[in-house]
Amino acid sequence: MWIMKTEIGLLILRVVVGITFLIHGMDKFNGGIDGTVTMFEGMGFPGFLAYLVTFAEILGGLALILGLFTRVVSIIFAAIMVTAIFQVKADGGFLGGFELDLVLLACSILLALSSSRLVALNRVLPGALKNM
User: Fold this and answer.
1) Would residue 126 be called left, alpha or beta, if left means φ above 0 and alpha means ψ between -120 and 50 degrees?
2) What is the pTM of this model?
3) CA 78/CA 107 separation, integer angstroms
4) Cα separations (Å) of 71 from 44, 78, 84, 104, 113?
5) In 31-87, which residue ranges form alpha helices assigned H by DSSP?
6) What is the per-residue pLDDT across 32-86, written as a single tens digit (0 to 9) for each?
């Protein structure tokens, strides 16, 4: 019984995190990727990283919603959040700064460690791909 409750909780978390990253990625793209590139460069990052992060958030968000490669995508999202916290948001403090990033980091780590198998397309993948 507790396993099913855990799986339902992980499913909800996976879908909500996926939607959150998907919307953030779409916002970067829809707001004008050139503006995102300029923002990244203004923070000292190479402009091409804006494209990588944007597409990682869009494609990774969709993958989480569908339950594809949950562990891999979650590790990528955790890396993005660590960078955002320490390189971009830390000076803003917790409230109004990095609180959302910290929650998304914690959620990404949980999904990377436990995955989410309920209503996940990973279940139909062959062999070792099922655990990604």
Assistant:
1) beta
2) 0.89
3) 8
4) 29, 10, 20, 14, 7
5) 33-42, 48-66, 70-83
6) 899 999 989 999 999 999 999 999 999 999 999 999 999 999 999 999 999 999 9
Residue type, 97: G
Angle formed by the axes of helices 33-42 and 48-66, to 10°?
A: 120
The C-alpha atoms of residue 45 and residue 62 are separated, in whole angstroms, by 25
Contact between 60 and 66 under an 8 Å Cβ cutoff? The reply is no
| Number of residues that make up the chain | 132
Provide the b/e sequence for 71-97 (b: ≥16 CB within 10 Å). bebbbbbbebbeebbeebbeeeeeeee
